Amino acid sequence: MNIKASPHAGVRGPADHSIRDQILLAADEHFSYYGYGKTTVSDLAKAIGFSKAYIYKFFDSKQAIGEAICHKCLSSLLDKVREALGEGSAAADGLRILFTTIAAGSTDLFFSDRRLYDIVIYSTGEKWPSSQEYERQVRELLKNILRQGRETGEFETRTPLDDQCRSIFLAMESFVNPLLLQHKLDGIPAAIDDLIKLVLRSLTP
Amino acid sequence: MNIKASPHAGVRGPADHSIRDQILLAADEHFSYYGYGKTTVSDLAKAIGFSKAYIYKFFDSKQAIGEAICHKCLSSLLDKVREALGEGSAAADGLRILFTTIAAGSTDLFFSDRRLYDIVIYSTGEKWPSSQEYERQVRELLKNILRQGRETGEFETRTPLDDQCRSIFLAMESFVNPLLLQHKLDGIPAAIDDLIKLVLRSLTP
């Protein structure tokens, strides 16, 4: 599998966003209906009324199309998180909001568009750049919240920030990683609440 | 699917352990080779040279045979944990040993007998009694270690024991639950070490 280095890898050709979006929209529908594995670039071409060659002017493979869809999907999830985080709340609330919003958004996607969720799972399993970028950004959001809590004296500072960040990400990973989340859908709010309480006990100054 | 109430559910008939074991051994080999889903009770009967009716004297379904194999497999994993836990070590070491031994044993199984691991995954996904009993016993081992640490003053006692136990199990679940572990095989020792340190910080008196 041809793994590229950026979430926009494989996107190429004329800078005509409306055509690119049209291809993505058709691909999204096709993947949602027939599944990512069963859809070919020829199917997409037929559905949109473009030639296969024309589609290849915009995306260099089916994976590049899948990547763009995953990127859009995960970016929109992260936008929701950033919006929910807002500004000025205590770091403890930030932790709660971060993981609750991610889990809620992912669960919504799982139940409302299972086949799209399956592409996201696929991208996570294959370590596509889109899912790696998502993970990197979740870690960054987490680190910012921890930094804030350390600065205000809300969290302990004996443990290095990187160690705190890495271990908390591991503790919460089942609710961030779509591959794991699919097995943890029962009792999510209570489980996150329990885990956040444990994490906060670990951060006591 | 006919879910039974105990790990021995579906096991019946004459109390002849050697024949029961012979059936389990043949089933284990067959499942390991052809997979649980593709093996029928008729296949097993042929392989052992028994009639199908005779096998049904000992197990009332294919699931009952699968259950017995999972039970054996998970019991042997728990035996290793109990042996490693030994006696007299500090509660912090106990926590480390508990989760490290479980993860190591499960990883060994994953790499040495993938198809058997797949039956265990199947049993976890379907919440078979064998895997539920395994989870119950891991929680019990965890609770005993926490109780010991609370009694010796090694761990804090402000948080109720049940809350500590539930949240720590959640934090470590990816290394206990075979369904989750299959996605977490990279970097296990370091990840467990990080998580145990977080858990110990949360238990500081």
UniProtKB/TrEMBL annotation, chains A, B:
Limits of the HTH tetR-type domain: 17-77
Annotation: DNA-binding region: 40-59
Residue runs in coiled coils: none
Classification via Gene3D superfamilies: Homeodomain-like, Tetracycline Repressor, domain 2
PROSITE patterns: HTH_TETR_2 (PS50977)
Any Pfam family the entry gives: TetR_N
UniProt keyword annotations, A-Z: DNA-binding, Transcription, Transcription regulation
UniProt-recorded Gene Ontology molecular function terms: DNA-binding transcription factor activity; transcription cis-regulatory region binding
Annotated protein name in UniProt: TetR family transcriptional regulator
